[in-house]
Amino acid sequence: MERPDPVNARYRQLPAVDRLVERAGKDTGLARWSLLAAARAVLTAARAALRDEKMGGEDSGRLAARTHELARCLEQPFPQSVLNATGVVLHTNLGRAPLAPGAAQAAAAAAGYGALEMDLASGDRTSRLRHVSQLLTLLSGAEAALVVNNNAAALLLAVDTLANGREVILSRGELVEIGGSFRLHEILGASRARLCEVGTTNRTHLYDYQRAVGPDTGLILKVHRSNFELRGYTHELSLQELGPLAREQGVPLVEDRGSGTFVDLRRHGIPEDRAWAGLEQGADLVMFSGDKLLGGPQAGIVLGRRDLVERMARNPLARALRVDKLALAALTWTLRSLLEGSALERLPVLRMLLASPRELRARAERLAKGLEGSGFAKVSIEEGGSVVGGGALPELELSGPVVCIAPAGSVGELARRLRESETPLLVRVQRDTLVVDPRTLADEDLDQVVAILAKLSH
Ligand SMILES: *Cc1c(COP(=O)(O)O)cnc(C)c1O
Predict the structure, then answer these.
(1) pLDDT, the chain, mean
(2) Is 152 in the pocket of ligand 1 (CB under 6 A)?
């Protein structure tokens, strides 16, 4: 017999699953599987809240609304495709580098069975990295290359392997945070290496490194300040200056450059060395992300001395941090387009970064023309500036024409409604102006962008 328990009594007031499904799904077109899963989750949460006395009797209208919302979420593809009109080429919250269609096709083609770890001639097991390593060494001239899941993994693997139980020497000026979850000292804390901070936030000298280096040193690390600048009374050492000390002490010098490109961007006026420049300047290893300036999929790429790369590959952590076959296929395609010399046309990141003012103006004019007669108070083309984003080139501002829109109502409200439109449109808000930056849009997106904006212009 049931005890006269007040909680039990309240449980009984909750609707049955079927009733909740029916009420939440009425005239919505939502599928039964999603409604059922949502209703169960909502009821479980409601029971837990009743048990913990976090709420009184829950109104069944609210439970139905919550079920409806959750079912809608469950049916949505993830991640939802969006149109990026922010001008931020490597937008961390929008998935960083957009893949080239060819790279995406290569990933899709790799989804089935493939000779990922099999040598077809002999039938023997081989490394999944054999092909990509070859492309990377051919492109960079580095002795050896390794690819893992992402650059954070590459750094973790390097310090864990090369400074196992020993110290990693790092300037306090490079003890950085790159996006909330990547903080240098925390990554080091997760490895078997110990951090040895040298210098101060603004100035680090050779003697700071000289005093710290000793038998307990595993490696010297240089980290690129990817998302901020240090200006004023500052001093830091270049790889050229650190190289002799590292060699004299017999410790590896490792550069985490965050972003790496294989294209000579300086020829196009962008102050960024090629990814392997650090090796020429005295580093033994350099590492960077696949989905920043390189313009490929998420990956962590390591280039440099063969003996060090081989030691890293033998660390059991390498297996835990390995790159998956879809990313590997997309990366291989991306590297091949670089080797072939077609990357400037084929990689979206490079196309956006190097878009000519003429190209951008033509797109801006098409957008502005499309918005003629819409309900906006004012639409004009102005000179604006985009940033690269994604922890790359913090000092660089890319200038070019943008479309400025003065809405009749609140600009923040309009930006929110654009984010929530059927195909979300992401824009920049500058005071009371909405900025649509054509740099991160493709020609074939423009009609849709106009339609989304026009619809919300009244
Ligand atoms: C972006 C960045 C990382 C992290 O790279 P992920 O590929 O996102 O893991 C590490 N170090 C630096 C300096 C970076 O800029």
Answers:
(1) 94
(2) yes
Going from the Cα of 444 to the center of ligand 1, the distance in angstroms, rounded, reads: 31
Q: What angle do CA 411, 417, 421 make, to 5 degrees?
A: 145
Ligand 1 centre and the CA of 221: distance in Å?
14
Q: What is the pLDDT of residues 117-162, one digit of tens each?
A: 999 999 999 999 999 999 999 999 999 999 999 999 999 999 999 9
pLDDT at 1 over 60: no
Respond yes or no on whether the N-terminal peptide bond of residue 6 is cis (omega within 30° of 0).
no
Give the alpha-carbon dihedral of 318, 177, 203, 393, to 10 degrees: 90
Asked whether the predicted pLDDT for residue 3 surpasses 60, the reply is: no
Are 176 and 225 spatial neighbours (Cβ–Cβ below 8 Å)?
yes
Ligand 1 centroid from CA 440, angstroms: 22
Could you report how far apart the first and last alpha carbons of the chain are, in Å? 63
Does the Cβ of 260 fall within 6 Å of ligand 1? no
Query: Is the shortest distance between the CB of 296 and ligand 1 below 6 Å?
Result: no
Q: Which of 184, 255, 289 to mutate to test the pocket of ligand 1 (most atoms within 8 A of CB)?
A: 289
Smallest CA separation from ligand 1 atom 14, residue: 258
Q: If you measure from the C-alpha of residue 420 to the centroid of ligand 1, how many angstroms do you get, rounded to a whole number?
A: 30
In this prediction, residue 180 carries a pLDDT of 66
Distance 288 CA to ligand 1 centre (A): 7
324 — phi, psi (to 5°)? -90, 165
In tens, the pLDDT along 50-84 reads 888 766 656 889 999 999 999 999 999 999 999 99
Contact criterion met (CB below 8 Å) for 322 and 159:
no
The closest-lying atom of ligand 1 relative to the alpha carbon of residue 291 is 7
Which protein residue's CA is at the shortest distance from atom 1 of ligand 1? 258
Q: Whose CA is nearest to atom 13 of ligand 1?
A: 258
Q: Between the CA atoms of 37, 43, 46 and 47, what dihedral angle is there, to the nearest 10 degrees?
A: -120
Cα 228 to ligand 1 centre (Å): 13
Rounded percentage of the chain residues whose pLDDT exceeds 70: 98
How far does residue 67's CA lie from ligand 1's centre (Å)? 38
Judge whether residue 4 has pLDDT over 80: no
